[in-house]
C-alpha cells in the first residue's frame, strides 16, 4: 500500500524556498571516467511521429567543464517522520571528516527541504521515493563569491574506493545500525523529485524538483573534459552518467548562478532524489545512506525525461522551452521524437567496469552517427562496420543474457534512393536517379527486444556528391543513367544531364553505335571514357569507381564529334567527326586525355580562346576547305601534347588545304609538344605566328615528325609580338618536291621586347633543287633578339641556301641581334640548274642598318653546288656598313676578307668561303650566347 509523505517534525512540510541555515561546502576534487550503459524494459508507449528529415538534429556529446570537488549527500532516518538530509564536502583522500575550505574550490549549499513517501507492496516491487533540496550560492567552499558566473552546475554521481557495491552509495545501514544488505545498493536508482498525488495515491513529479540529468559515457569521461584529467586526480573510481543539475530560483529561463553574489544570496536550487526498494520487513530497509557526487560545470543546457515521467505524461518539453529550446535527453521507453531529442538508451547506475545496474534498455549508442559519401547515380555498399548496427552496442546487466540487437530499415531513403539491408547491418544504397550534391537520409531503428529507438534518432546521412551519368551502348535498354542501369545512348545522357555533371562512357561493344551523333557539352561537364580510370571527388578525397580499360568511340557522322562549352574535361575517349573532331570557342580551361581525335572533312582540333591541359595520342585530319587548317589553335594557352605511340607517324596524319598545324596564341602562353606526327600535302606544314600587337608566346617542341609535300614551308615560325618563345625541333624530316622552304624562323619583334631561343638538332631536310627555298632560315628582322643552336642537322637538298642566318633591318633604338651557333651540321646539294651556296651569313640587308649577327660555326661539313659556270662556296658572307658581325675566336684582322675566310674555313673542315663586298667587312671577335633552356 502507498505510504504517506514524511514531514519533518514540528515544522510542517518544508517548501523548496525554506532555508534551514545549514551551510554546506563542496570539497575540491574533479570527476572520474564512465562505463557503457543500458536501460530496463518499459511499458508500451505511443508510437512517435517521424519528424521531417531536415529537422532531425545531431546532438554531439559535449564534454563537461571544470570539476569543483566531491560532495557527499547523506540521508538519515529514512522512513521516519524526522528524516534528515545533510551534505559535506570531502578531501580527495577519502570520505571521512569535513573537507578543508580550499579557496577557489567548492560550492556553498544550504538545505531547503526534504521528503519521502512509499508506494506499492513491500517485498513485491514496492518503492520508497525520497528527495532532499538544497539551495546553492556561487561561492567557494570558504564562502568567497566567485567572480565569474556558473552555468548548468551539475552534481555527477561517482564511486570511490570507499563506496559500496561499485555504486555511489556508502554508510549503508539499517535502523539497528548494522549494515544493510549491500546487494540493495545497486537497486537505489535516481529519479526526479517525486511527491504523492493525494487524488490518486500515485507518484507524481515534484514541481520544481525535476533536476535529474543523464549523460553519455563519453560526456562524463574525465579524459574528455574540456580540461582533460583522470579519475584518480578527481578522487573517484568512476563517474556515472547521471546526476542532478542546479537551476536558478528566480527564473526558469536559465540555470545561471550570477557572479559575485551577496553574503546571503543563494541564486540556485538543486534536488537530489532516489527510489529505494521496500524490503519484505521494514527492519531490513536502508535507514541511512550517503551518495557521492562530483560537482562539475556543464557547458551544455539540457533537460532530462526520467523513467517515471515517461508514464506520467512528459513535461520535459515545457521545461526545455522555458530554457530556450534546450536539448532533451531521454531513455528507452520515451514517447518523444523531434529535433531536440538526444536519445540515450541507457545509463549505468552501478558497476565500475561491468554493468551492475542501469536505467533504460540493454544497449547504448557508442558514437556519432556515421556520415557516408557516395557519388551521384552510383551505388554504395556499406560494410557492417559502418552499417545499421555499427553505432549500437548491447550491454546487459552482469549475470543477465546479452540481447541480440535487431534493426528495421526502409526500402527507400528519404529522397527515394534504394536501400537493401542484410541481417548483420550491412547494406547497399543506390541514390535516386539524378541525385547529386545533396544529402540523403536513411531512417532506421534498433531494438533489444524491449526497447526500440524513437523515430528520427538513428539516421545514416549519405552525402550524394558529384553526379555521374553512365552510358554503355550494349547495356539493356533504356537504362536510367545509374551505374546499375546505364543509358544506351550518349544523346540520352546529354538530355538528362546538367552543368558540372560527369558523363561516363563504357567501352561497350567497341563501336560508335549509340554514340555517333556528337555531343555538345554544358558548362563544367566532364565527358569521360573507359580509357581512363573514373576517379571522382568523394568527401575530402577522391574515389576510383571504374579502372581504366579500352577507349570507347564518340563520333558524329554529320558534324563535330565534341563541341565544348566552358571548363570541360574530355578524357579516355577516341573522338571523331566530319566537320571537326573537337571544337570550342571561349572554352575556359579544357582538360583532356584522349586517344585519337580525328576529322574527315575539317580540323581535328578547332580551338579559339581558352586554356589547355591536354594530351592526345594522335590527331588525324583531312580538311579540304579552302584555307582550312588540320589543327587550329587561336588565342589558346596552357599545355598540349601529341604523344604518338613510339612508332613513325603514330602521332597522326594531317592534311589541309591551308595549314596543317596553325598556332596563333595571341595573348596566351602555350606549351605545345608534337611527337611522331606527319603533316603532308598542305599549304604549310606547321605555322606559328604572333602579330606585332600580341603578347603571347609559345614553347614549341616538335620531334621525330615528318613534314612532306607541303607547298609553302614545312615549318614556319613567325613571331612578331612581344612574347619570348622557345623552340625545340629535333629528329624531324622535312621533304618536298616543290622547292619550298624547309624550316624558317623570321622574327620582327619590337625593339628590346623579347628574346627567342631555339634548339634545332638532328633534323633532315631534303627539298627540290628548283625554286627559291632555303633548307633552314633563321632571321632577325628589326628589333628583338634570338639565340639559336643548329646542331647535327643534315641538309642535302635545297634551291637557294642550305642554311641562311641573318640579322637585318635594324636601326637606332631598334637594333636586333641574332646569336647563332652552327655545330656539326652537314650541308650539300646535288647538281642543280642554278649555282647554290651552302651557308649564307648576312649582317644587314642595307648599309646603315644597326643589327648584330654573331655566328659561331664549328665542325660543319658544308659545300656549294659545283657549277663550272659560276662561283659557289660552302659559306658565303656579307656585312653591311653600320652593322656588327661577330665571329667567336677570330684572330687577326676582321677587315681582311682573306683572314676572315681562312678562319671560318679552318674551323669547318676546309669549307670554301667567300665574301661579298669585302669593302664593308669589319668582323670582330666576341661570344655568341647559346640558348639557356
Automatic annotation (TrEMBL):
Compositional bias of kind Pro residues: 36-51
Name the source's superkingdom.
Bacteria
Please give the InterPro entries that the UniProt record associates with this protein. Answer: PbH1, Pectin_lyas_fold, Pectin_lyase_fold/virulence
SUPFAM superfamilies in the cross-refs: Pectin lyase-like
By its UniProt entry, which SMART domains does this protein fall under? PbH1 (SM00710)
Cited PROSITE patterns: PROKAR_LIPOPROTEIN
Region ranges (Disordered): 36-60
Query: Would you tell me the protein name for this molecule?
Result: Right handed beta helix region
Per the UniProt record, the lineage of the source organism begins with: Bacteria, Thermotogati, Deinococcota, Deinococci, Deinococcales
Amino acid at each position: 500500500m502507498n505510504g504517506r509523505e514524511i514531514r519533518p517534525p514540528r515544522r510542517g512540510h518544508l517548501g523548496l524556498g525554506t532555508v534551514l541555515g545549514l551551510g554546506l561546502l563542496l570539497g575540491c576534487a574533479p570527476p572520474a571516467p564512465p562505463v557503457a550503459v543500458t536501460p530496463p524494459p518499459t511499458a508500451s508507449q505511443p508510437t512517435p511521429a517521424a519528424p521531417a528529415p531536415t529537422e532531425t538534429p545531431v546532438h554531439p556529446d559535449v564534454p563537461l567543464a571544470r570539476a569543483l570537488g566531491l560532495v557527499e549527500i547523506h540521508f538519515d532516518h529514512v522512513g521516519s517522520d524526522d528524516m534528515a538530509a545533510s551534505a559535506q564536502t570531502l578531501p580527495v583522500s577519502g570520505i571521512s571528516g569535513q573537507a578543508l575550505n580550499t579557496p577557489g574550490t567548492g560550492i556553498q549549499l544550504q538545505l531547503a527541504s526534504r521528503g519521502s513517501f512509499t508506494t506499492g507492496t513491500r517485498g513485491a516491487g514496492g518503492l520508497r521515493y525520497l528527495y532532499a533540496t538544497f539551495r546553492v550560492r556561487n561561492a567557494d567552499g570558504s564562502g568567497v563569491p566567485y567572480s565569474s558566473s556558473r552555468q548548468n552546475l551539475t552534481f555527477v554521481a561517482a564511486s570511490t574506493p570507499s563506496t559500496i557495491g561499485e555504486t555511489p552509495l556508502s554508510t549503508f545501514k539499517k535502523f539497528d545500525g548494522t549494515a544493510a544488505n549491500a546487494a540493495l545498493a545497486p537497486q537505489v536508482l535516481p529519479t526526479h523529485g517525486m511527491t504523492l498525488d493525494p487524488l490518486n495515491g500515485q507518484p507524481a513529479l515534484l514541481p520544481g524538483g525535476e533536476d535529474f540529468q543523464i549523460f553519455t559515457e563519453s560526456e562524463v569521461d574525465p579524459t574528455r573534459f574540456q580540461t582533460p584529467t583522470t579519475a584518480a586526480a578527481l578522487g573517484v573510481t568512476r563517474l556515472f552518467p547521471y546526476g542532478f543539475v542546479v537551476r536558478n530560483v528566480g527564473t526558469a529561463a536559465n540555470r545561471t548562478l550570477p557572479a559575485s553574489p551577496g553574503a546571503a544570496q543563494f541564486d540556485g536550487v538543486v534536488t537530489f532524489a532516489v527510489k529505494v526498494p521496500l524490503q519484505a520487513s521494514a527492519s531490513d530497509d536502508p535507514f541511512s545512506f550517503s551518495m557521492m557526487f562530483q560537482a562539475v560545470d556543464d557547458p551544455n543546457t539540457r533537460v532530462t525525461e526520467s523513467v517515471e515521467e515517461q508514464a506520467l505524461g512528459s513535461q520535459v518539453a515545457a521545461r526545455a522551452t522555458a530554457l530556450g529550446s534546450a536539448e532533451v535527453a531521454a531513455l528507452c521507453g520515451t514517447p518523444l521524437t523531434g529535433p531536440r531529442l538526444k536519445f540515450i538508451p541507457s545509463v549505468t547506475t552501478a558497476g565500475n567496469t561491468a554493468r551492475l545496474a542501469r536505467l533504460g534498455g540493454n544497449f547504448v549508442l557508442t558514437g556519432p552517427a556515421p556520415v557516408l559519401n557516395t557519388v551521384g547515380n552510383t551505388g554504395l555498399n556499406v560494410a557492417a562496420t559502418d552499417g545499421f548496427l555499427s553505432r549500437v552496442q548491447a550491454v546487459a546487466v552482469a549475470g543477465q543474457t546479452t540481447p541480440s540487437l535487431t534493426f528495421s530499415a526502409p526500402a527507400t531513403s528519404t529522397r527515394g534512393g534504394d536501400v537493401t539491408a542484410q541481417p548483420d547491418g550491412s547494406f547497399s544504397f543506390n541514390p535516386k536517379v539524378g541525385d547529386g550534391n545533396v544529402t540523403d537520409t536513411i531512417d532506421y531503428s534498433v531494438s533489444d527486444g524491449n526497447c526500440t529507438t524513437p523515430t528520427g534518432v538513428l539516421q545514416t546521412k549519405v552525402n550524394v556528391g558529384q553526379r555521374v551519368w553512365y552510358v554503355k551502348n550494349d547495356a539493356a535498354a533504356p537504362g536510367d543513367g545509374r551505374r546499375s542501369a546505364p543509358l544506351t545512348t550518349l544523346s540520352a545522357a546529354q538530355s538528362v544531364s546538367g552543368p558540372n555533371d560527369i558523363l561516363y562512357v563504357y567501352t561497350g561493344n567497341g563501336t560508335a553505335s549509340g554514340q555517333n551523333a556528337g555531343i555538345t557539352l554544358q558548362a563544367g561537364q566532364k565527358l569521360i571514357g573507359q580509357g581512363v580510370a573514373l576517379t571522382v571527388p568523394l568527401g575530402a578525397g577522391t574515389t576510383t569507381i571504374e579502372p581504366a580499360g579500352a577507349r570507347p568511340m564518340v563520333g558524329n557522322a554529320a558534324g563535330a564529334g565534341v563541341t565544348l562549352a566552358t571548363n570541360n574535361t574530355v578524357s579516355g575517349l577516341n573522338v571523331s567527326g566530319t566537320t571537326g573532331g573537337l571544337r570550342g570557342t571561349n572554352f575556359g580551361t579544357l582538360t583532356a586525355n584522349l586517344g585519337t581525335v580525328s576529322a574527315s572533312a575539317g580540323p581535328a582540333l578547332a580551338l579559339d580562346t581558352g586554356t589547355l591541359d591536354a594530351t592526345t595520342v594522335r590527331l588525324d585530319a583531312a580538311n579540304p576547305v579552302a584555307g582550312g587548317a588540320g589543327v587550329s589553335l587561336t588565342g589558346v594557352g596552357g599545355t598540349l601534347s601529341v604523344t604518338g605511340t613510339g612508332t613513325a607517324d603514330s602521332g597522326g596524319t594531317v592534311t589541309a588545304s591551308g595549314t596543317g598545324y596553325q598556332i596563333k596564341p595571341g595573348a596566351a602562353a602555350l606549351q605545345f609538344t608534337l611527337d611522331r606526327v606527319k603533316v603532308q600535302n598542305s599549304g604549310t606544314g606547321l605555322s606559328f605566328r604572333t602579330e606585332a600587337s600580341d603578347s603571347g608566346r609559345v614553347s614549341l617542341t616538335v620531334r621525330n615528325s615528318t613534314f612532306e609535300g607541303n607547298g609553302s614551308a614545312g615549318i614556319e615560325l613567325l613571331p612578331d609580338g612581344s612574347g619570348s618563345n622557345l623552340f625545340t625541333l629535333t629528329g624531324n624530316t622535312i621533304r618536298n618536291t616543290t622547292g619550298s622552304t624547309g624550316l624558317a624562323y623570321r622574327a620582327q619583334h619590337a625593339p628590346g621586347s623579347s628574346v627567342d631561343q631555339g634548339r634545332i638538332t638532328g633534323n633532315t631536310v631534303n627539298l627540290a633543287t628548283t625554286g627559291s627555298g632555303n633548307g633552314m632560315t633563321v632571321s632577325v628582322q628589326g628589333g628583338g633578339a634570338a639565340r639559336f643552336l643548329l646542331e647535327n642537322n643534315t641538309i642535302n637538298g635545297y634551291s637557294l641556301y642550305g642554311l641562311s642566318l641573318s640579322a637585318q633591318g635594324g636601326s637606332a633604338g631598334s637594333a636586333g641581334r641574332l646569336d647563332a651557333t652552327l655545330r656539326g651540321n652537314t650541308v650539300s646539294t646535288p647538281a642543280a640548274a642554278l649555282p647554290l651556296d651552302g651557308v649564307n651569313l648576312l649582317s644587314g640587308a642595307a648599309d646603315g642598318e644597326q643589327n648584330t649577327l654573331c655566328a659561331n660555326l664549328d665542325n660543319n661539313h658544308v659545300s656549294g653546288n659545283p657549277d663550272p659556270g659560276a662561283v659557289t662556296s660552302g659559306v658565303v658572307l656579307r656585312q653591311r656598313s653600320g652593322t656588327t658581325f661577330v665571329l667567336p675566336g677570330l684572330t687577326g684582322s676582321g677587315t681582311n676578307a682573306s683572314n676572315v675566310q681562312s678562319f671560318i674555313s679552318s674551323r669547318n673542315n676546309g669549307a670554301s668561303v667567300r665574301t661579298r663586298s669585302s669593302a664593308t667587312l669589319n668582323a670582330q671577335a666576341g661570344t655568341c650566347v647559346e640558348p639557356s633552356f
